[in-house]
Amino acid sequence: PQAGGQVPAHEEVLDRVPEKLTWEPVPGAGFYQVFIRDLWNDSELIHASKLLTRPELELPPGLLQQGGYYSWIIHARDTNSHILLGDFNHGSLNTPATFMISE
């Protein structure tokens, strides 16, 4: 299954920089990984999280900026009890969500 219920939601415009990104838990997922891209800067990957055990990512201070335009994708992983060799296929990637932070 794919992650859903992203906050911020797809195409949302925020008044301020969020402190974290959240989503609904994926049944059977043991871990998550989040990838954030800067869409104003040729879709440059600006953050790849470590493996997360909860459906949230605390954002490092200064990562996102006012006036920024970003996309984020969640990779839900069922590692079959092996953190490195477990299931890590494209079927667990959600559709990228984009959001903007107003100036």
Quick take:
The chain is an all-beta fold and 103 residues long.
Please write out the topology.
Layout: E1 12-14, E2 20-22, E3 31-38, E4 44-48, E5 56-58, E6 69-77, E7 97-101
Parallel strand pairs: 1-7
Antiparallel strand pairs: 2-5, 3-4, 3-6, 6-7
How would you describe this structure to a colleague?
- The chain is mainly β and 103 residues long.
- It contains no helices and 7 strands.
- The chain has strands at 12-14, 20-22, 31-38, 44-48, 56-58, 69-77, 97-101.
- Strands 1-7-6-3-4 form a 5-stranded mixed sheet, with no helix packed on it. Strands 2-5 form a two-stranded antiparallel ribbon.
- β3 and β4 (44-48) form a beta hairpin.
Give the N-to-C terminal Cα separation. 35 Å
Structural class, from helix and strand content? mainly beta
Number of strands: 7
| Strand arrangement across the biggest beta sheet | 1-7-6-3-4
Helix content: under 10%
Q: How much is the average pLDDT?
A: 88
- Beta-strand percentage range: 25-35%
Elements, N to C (H/E): EEEEEEE
Major sheet attributes: 5 strands, mixed
The helix count comes to 0
* Low-confidence segments: none
Shape: globular
Radius of gyration, in angstroms, nearest whole number: 14 Å
